[in-house]
Amino acid sequence: MKNRFFSNIFIPFRFEFPEDNPHKNARPIVGIVQSNGCVWCISHKTKDGKYPRVSRYGKDYRLHRWIFKKYNQDIPEGMVIRHECHNTFCINPDHLELGTQGDNMRDKVLSGRQPRGSVCKSAKLNEEQVYEIRFSSEGKTVKELAEEYGVSGSTIRSIKKRKSWMHVVEHKIIAA
Length: 176
Known about the structure:
alpha+beta, Homing Intron 3 (I-Ppo) Encoded Endonuclease, Chain A, 2 domains, 3-stranded antiparallel sheet, two-stranded antiparallel ribbon
């Protein structure tokens, strides 16, 4: 069944509760299966604009975490549920996997979904300033640079050692 608004949507998905389930009277979880296998939840709202939520046992859960537990296993303390498809609205159990927050952030960086540099909301510097710190600040101490740019000494050291702002590189001018 094709939806006239989304050409890539084909089949409705419905997660029903068995008769012996204490949640059998709960609102069913309804999603739409897309051509890439993602199941977009359309029955439950988001609170943060990213993850559909569900209330069960008097608690509020992110729906993908609740579905992972139902189809797979309990989620150990300190672990997160990652979306292999990088789609936070997806509730397909086959697209959900257990991992660490570090795994999740690495995925975000490798897939290009993590803002870098001055595009990042919390950035206090821009690429030009980082370039100046890294390549044009000979003779200045870390403390002087930190005061000049309004950041901490550890930020300056991180920039100079290329542990942060790694995308800012020195440009070599080749004479024609």
